[in-house]
């Protein structure tokens, strides 16, 4: 029953978002305790603190009121929008969990699907770990290109495991019902047909919601890239530490 696998495949939702959003991350970005830092070669080069003071290589810039206002607006947008990338990955896991709950409840066998649930949770955590190191949010440089090249391979491998475990769990649940004489072949066909329709409807609705959210987030990040260009005009010292490029 391939429909059960649809939710799991949506764990790669971050990769889908990356392929459709034409923004490059030119330097690694860290967000932690209200501070935004730009890293190069593994070292923090620019730091904007929670009071919107900016430091380059540890030296504070002397900003006028106009510069500080531009920096505050930009820093606020970075802190608001970038962490939402991790939410896109969480949405995929949430859809997978919804599908799994639908299947397990249809067969009244939550325990048969416990291993699948554990795998989805595990891979969901791995998706979060792509963005969080301890409590610090990290947006890697060239992230979107890396998603397409390496993350997809990781997710494809993960989904093979989810697929195998899903089918095994489904057969276990079916065997239990047929052993107890709770279902015949005709009823089984009807059950599969109804379940397939419910899953497709749920995935379609949730995927549509996720697509809108991803599109909105992409537009917000493109807006940040454009805002950064204006910020560099106001504070030229930041030009060598660009965060985004369209």
Short description:
By secondary structure, this protein is α+β, with helices and mostly antiparallel strands.
Give the helix/strand layout.
Layout: H1 4-9, H2 13-20, E1 24-25, E2 28-32, E3 35-40, E4 43-48, E5 54-56, E6 59-60, H3 65-81, H4 84-106, H5 114-129, E7 132-133, E8 136-139, H6 143-179, H7 185-234, E9 244-245
Antiparallel strand pairs: 1-9, 2-3, 2-8, 3-4, 4-5, 5-6, 7-8
Account of the 3D structure:
There is one protein chain. The protein has about 250 residues and is an alpha+beta fold. The chain has seven helices and nine strands; from the N terminus they run ααββββββαααββααβ. It has a seven-stranded antiparallel sheet with strand order 6-5-4-3-2-8-7, with helices on one face. The longest helix is centred in the last third of the chain and has 50 residues, at about 185-235. The relative contact order is 0.21.
Count of beta strands:
9
- The rough form would be described as elongated
User: Kindly, what is the distance between the CA atoms of the first and last residues, rounded to a whole number of angstroms?
Assistant: 42 Å
**Quaternary state, please?**
single chain
Keywords for this entry:
single chain, 246 residues, alpha+beta, 7-stranded antiparallel β-sheet, two-stranded antiparallel sheet
């Amino acid at each position: 029953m391939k429909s059960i696998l649809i939710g799991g495949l949506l764990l790669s939702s971050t990769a889908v978002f990356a392929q459709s959003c034409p923004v490059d991350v030119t330097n690694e970005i860290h967000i932690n305790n209200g501070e935004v830092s730009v890293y190069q070669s593994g070292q923090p080069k620019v730091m904007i603190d929670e009071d919107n003071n900016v430091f380059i290589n540890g030296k504070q810039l002397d900003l006028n009121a106009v510069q500080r206002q531009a920096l505050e607006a930009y820093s606020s947008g970075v802190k608001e929008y970038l962490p939402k990338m991790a939410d896109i990955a969480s949405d995929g896991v949430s859809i997978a969990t919804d599908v799994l709950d639908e299947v397990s409840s249809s067969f009244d066998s939550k325990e048969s699907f416990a291993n699948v649930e554990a795998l989805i949770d595990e891979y969901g955590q791995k998706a979060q770990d792509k963005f969080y190191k301890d409590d610090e949010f990290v947006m890697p440089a060239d992230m979107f290109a890396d998603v397409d090249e390496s993350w997809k391979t990781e997710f494809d491998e993960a989904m093979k495991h989810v697929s195998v475990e899903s089918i095994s769990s489904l057969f276990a649940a079916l065997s239990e019902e047929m052993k107890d004489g709770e279902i015949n072949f005709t009823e089984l066909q009807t059950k599969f047909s109804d379940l397939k329709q419910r899953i497709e409807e749920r995935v379609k609705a949730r995927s549509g919601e996720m697509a809108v959210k991803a599109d909105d987030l992409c537009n917000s990040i493109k807006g940040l890239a454009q805002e950064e260009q204006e910020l560099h005009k106001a504070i030229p010292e930041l030009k060598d530490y660009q965060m985004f490029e369209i």
